[in-house]
Amino acid sequence: MIRQPLGRHLSTTPPGERLDRNWRAIATKLRARRPSWRFAFVALAAVMICGAVLLPLSWRKSTRIEATVIETDADHTQTVVLAEGSRVVLGPSSRLLLVDVSTQHVRLELQRGAIDVDATHREGRTFSVGARQLDVDVVGTQFHVAVGDTPGDVEVSVSRGRVRVTSREDPSHPRFLGAGERWSTRALPPPPIASAAPSGQPVAHDAGAVHEAPPKPSLSPQVRKLIVAGRFVDAYGLVLPDFDDDCQTLGADDLFQLAEAARGAGHPRHAATAFDALRTRFRTDARAPLAALELGRLDLDDLDDPRAAKNALDDVVALQPDGFFREDADARRVQALEAMGDHTECVAARERYLAAYPHGSHRASVARRCR
Amino acid sequence: MPGERALRAVPARPSDGEIVAAARTGELWAQEALYRASAPSAFGLVRRLLGTDEDVDDVVQDTFLTAFRTLESLRDDDAFRAWMLRIAVGKVSRVIRKRRVLAMLGLRSKERPDLDDVLGPSATPEIALELQRIYRFVVSLPADIRVAFVLRRVEGRTLEEIAELTSASLATVKRRVARADAALAELEEGEA
To answer: Given this structure, which CATH class describes domain B10-111?
Structure first.
């Protein structure tokens, strides 16, 4: 009987496409979170709220809700009809705090995601929605408020009626949005914001007091939603026209999403462009080493460019010399050198890998290289 | 700066522990980073423990989903891979148990190890035969004993490592490996 460990003679490292396929399956399941007890509790709370706010009119006068949270998961929306007749629809992955809801006063605070509000007109009733640094006050209207993933991102659009938008840092300079108008901290340049002129007609002027941050471009909520839903082809179709420009302007998180969309849609060259932009433009970002590794893998497996792959893999090590991806990068580097036909370097890299990782997960495949 | 748009607060050049910490908060990029770094180990271990390619993808996916959903219970953030492999071993044991039950109920044919596609170039005919013999033998073993035996004979793990991976005591592991060794010796005697 042979007594040596026999596993080293089994080559069980999965090919890259199998790893990718499994990651996509895992990511989809992670995004589509299972209904948890917490969600069930929230859903129950929402039902109770709906029941409470829909009580007969004679009871409504005494109905008051304070500090209640309504949350939705990634796959659901939630409609809440308030006692005074207004309707609030929470988008997926949203969190809304009902700060104070009564027939005379509605105060909501959007903490995450987006809401659509159809506020009924009621004499004497105030209706306001807080979102990050802004307050949106309503007098009978239909509007949409969304907060982005990053601090400061807020979007308000009005379908009907008018709203007043006030910065909490400068409440003395409210701005007004009319029907069909949209305002976003991310927009460049900012959409016109109308103020109430003496005639009552909206007049466009600059966003100054409310919109103080330098706006930066970002992936649209629609694209993000499609990516989260795993609909990469649809997302890619939307970002394709501006893909190269986006790679020069988007932030690290968006670039990563962009690359994922391109890769998921079967466009490795564009995925590589986005990963390359991330690792070169955001050298100190935590995602940079992973982006460099992914770029190396795409160059090797999909784009047949081992020289570019080697450069990217060298960059993984430069970005994070003793980091999480070092072993992967070292193993892939051997593969790249073999594909380049650089036998001497390949043998040296292979021996370095085998010495550094005697129980490495790529040991069997690396040992076969450069023979 | 009011309203300033900032990148998500992630540490620059994070350590393994910092990546785990980011994954714990649900950051998908960090979860992907953990997956990319440790999935090859998981695939290899699961494939070698199961002896066939069947169920490997399911077990690996299930392993990472469990790991990411229970990351709060990981005490040492720098030990993600070892912790994840422990989860994988538990999942494999469950699959083997399920296979045995289904086979006993006649709902599934007896396992046939499939090594042809994973035998490496270093596997001499003698080693290939030995591997085939071991995998044919282990299909008759109860899940816990089979896992301990494969970890010992195929993986070359120490008894302490097996105890860690299977969340069993050292004494239990010794007993399991000894039972498998005895059964194999008995089989060899019978064949002789």
So the answer is: mainly alpha
